[in-house]
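Please check this chain.
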Amino acid sequence: MAYDEKLADRIRERLADLQNIEEKQMMGGLTFMYNGKMCVGIIKDELMCRIDPDFHAVAVEKQGCRTMDFTNRPMKGYILIDETGMRNKADFDYWINLSLEFNSRAKASKKKTTK
């Protein structure tokens, strides 16, 4: 599954000044890990953001935002933003900043152990 390369470049540019950023192919798209934790990503042409689950209900009321429902399971704390929700720099930065702010409190996923 392809993802929007222009959106990937927008994210790379926005995160360029940060340390500990890693890109990973994940969920058929591209995920940007920050400090070892999933932060933002791209699924097809939408921005995926990991946000505070307590803010989820407020976020999905905003223009272009919906709950991520990968494999038809709604995931509280994970949202998708379409083009209408990130047309300008201020809107785009809003979503990225929301994800970066939550990242410091987010739990890292457990590492798989190999036997």
Remarks:
- The helical segments are 5-15, 56-59, 89-103.
- The chain has a mean pLDDT of 92.
